[in-house]
């Protein structure tokens, strides 16, 4: 291999002198003057200097410099004025391509660079060292002060209200130690300025959104399904301090009060000698409609607090709720006709999304706008015990074929309302062109009323449907006009009726619309008991009442299989469920269904 060539070392070639030193001098003076004044035009002059240094030919006047980069009309005009002044002072034959004595030679750093000279750097070396030491000292202080303070939600915020509500509930003797979402929202709303259901304008977050922060900060724990919320040890300690600050221990802030900050704000520790921690809990609430001591003076808000979850007679109105599916899609003309008929009859109705059923009625609280607030308070809504599922004959035929009919009846039974109604619309001569014979459809309607226990109302067309809804709305308005309505929770009391209407008691126990609609979600998470019930109902001849009777004794497949294992013989296993009574008549389930269930769960391999 040939040897590598030696590296040639040499000096950097010196740049030739600028052929226009006079222009270069004037541009350098302009740049230095602008730099002393702190003007950004200094960078424009620096670019012009760089271009002029690269130009190898002499310029006779400033106009010729326009061909150079970064030379505009302004710079050329200034140079032209300086050139004319130079010629007037030194004569028309004065040289313009050479400098007088004492001028700095072209090409030096003080002419073509913004950087300071080496002497300046040496003079500032001492100061630069001192600045670096101060920077290191500041960084060390920042590292020491980076300790984060305890998270405390802002007063009257969503997190503040949730912590206080859970704490007060835990202090009640005999309390269950947790709260469900709906009751927690209802109680915490009285302590929060923001709504737990309606977001503010321009935002998608409500007061309930702060619960995720509380869970993340290990202040609140969420368990079970439906969700149960309770305080952790840290949350309990924080809630105790918030409660003490709320109850009047505001004079002890100098001894170490609770600092209330914005939610999610991380605050660094104050330096020693700095301002102390300020307790914001003693700031008087001066919102519109509030007294000096921070309590709301609005009579409506006061009545809501004293009555709790009760709606007194005269404080609410009955509203018909129509599922939006009944007004959009499909036959638009027919669905709009229903809305027009309701409007023509003077029915007070509201179109919204219903997760189960097509029509229902709510008792909506009458609220008035509060002076000084953009929105009126959120009205409470309690669902009356009447819900209607509307079916045309063609829709009934399709739902029977695809299995929706059975599933809808099952969901209506467990929705929490005690008076489900099927509204069946005839479709005239079109019934003869359906996929199922008319006798099959009539039998399905009779079974819905006799076997499943639904009230069935048969009408001829949309007008009769609107007339029935109008009559029902007026009937319910008269029925509930002198009744006090109480809000109950499905999780606590279940779906069984209380018999209040039969005893003539003027108060009714109803569930809120938000809880009803949330519990009726079709694809929500299901418990083992619910899945077991759906499995049993897939067996031919095993209705919802029969499945419910089996679940009363064997709530899970594990409990049923354990019972089969305790049986001594095959015959005993086959007859295990035969004596279970179901329905209002308390009939036996029978040996045939008992044998089918046993074969389904105990036969190894595929069923033949």
UniProtKB/TrEMBL annotation:
| Sequence segments annotated as region (Disordered) | 89-116, 242-283, 288-307
Q: Where is the ERCC4 domain?
A: 319-428
Q: Name one GO cellular component term.
A: nucleolus
Keyword Transmembrane listed? The answer is no
The record's InterPro entries line, in alphabetical order, gives: DNA_pol_lamdba_lyase_dom_sf (IPR027421), EME1/EME2_C (IPR042530), ERCC4_domain (IPR006166), HHH_MUS81 (IPR010996), Mus81 (IPR033309), Restrct_endonuc-II-like (IPR011335), WH-like_DNA-bd_sf (IPR036388), WHD_MUS81 (IPR047417)
Q: Name one GO molecular function term.
A: metal ion binding
* Record keywords: DNA damage, DNA recombination, DNA repair, Endonuclease, Hydrolase, Magnesium, Metal-binding, Nuclease, Nucleus
State a single Pfam family of this protein: WHD_MUS81
Looking up SUPFAM superfamilies in the UniProt record yields: DNA polymerase beta, N-terminal domain-like, Restriction endonuclease-like
Coarse class of the protein's main subcellular location: nucleus
Q: Which domain of life is it from?
A: Eukaryota
**GO annotation terms (biological process):** DNA catabolic process; double-strand break repair via break-induced replication; mitotic intra-S DNA damage checkpoint signaling; replication fork processing; resolution of meiotic recombination intermediates
Q: Which cofactor does it need?
A: Mg(2+)
Assigned protein family: Belongs to the XPF family.
Q: How does it assemble?
A: Part of the heterodimeric DNA structure-specific endonuclease complex MUS81-EME1. Part of the heterodimeric DNA structure-specific endonuclease complex MUS81-EME2.
Q: What is this protein called?
A: Crossover junction endonuclease MUS81
Name the lineage. Answer: Eukaryota, Metazoa, Chordata, Craniata, Vertebrata
